[in-house]
Amino acid sequence: NAGVTQTPKFRILKIGQSMTLQCTQDMNHNYMYWYRQDPGMGLKLIYYSVGAGITDKGEVPNGYNVSRSTTEDFPLRLELAAPSQTSVYFCASTYGEGVRNTEAFFGQGTRLTVV
Amino acid sequence: GDSVTQMEGPVTLSEEAFLTINCTYTATGYPSLFWYVQYPGEGLQLLLKATKADDKGSNKGFEATYRKETTSFHLEKGSVQVSDSAVYFCAPLGGDYKLSFGAGTTVTVRA
Question: Distance, in angstroms, between A106 CA and closest chain B CA?
Answer without folding.
Answer: 6
